[in-house]
Amino acid sequence: MFTLEQLLAATGGRVIQGTPRADERFIGGAFDSRIIGPGEVFFALRDQRVGHDFVADAFARGARAAVVERSVPTPDNALLVEVSQPLHALRRLAEAIRDALHRLSRRRWARLASGPGSRAPKYRHLLDEALDLVPSQLSLIAVLLLRGAQTPG
To answer: What's the predicted TM-score (pTM) here?
Structure first.
């Protein structure tokens, strides 16, 4: 999970369409519109096909934002983030997430849980152990983190 603020900071991008919420969060990302899920960011990469041709399809499948080189036709509420090169933006975001996980690992709040040969690293949080929490306390913290910033009332 990452915020729009983290996405913009890591990629050097800027919002060129849509109205982002102050607490905008994304649960992941993809560069294949066929596997994009709700709440994720679509990265319009250039390869054998031009990713910009699939931005509308990604939004139809539930993408919350797209990282693009240029403006493309999208639904009115679509959030577009412009960068010079989406592939480099994806790489910089992945590096920022990896660095954050390494910082958590150094504090012993997370550890690598996947084994050798795994296609993607998987981490396990150790917050309950680090803070000596019982399950109900850990559940409360998880709910608060998932809800994001709250307003009184």
So the answer is: 0.75
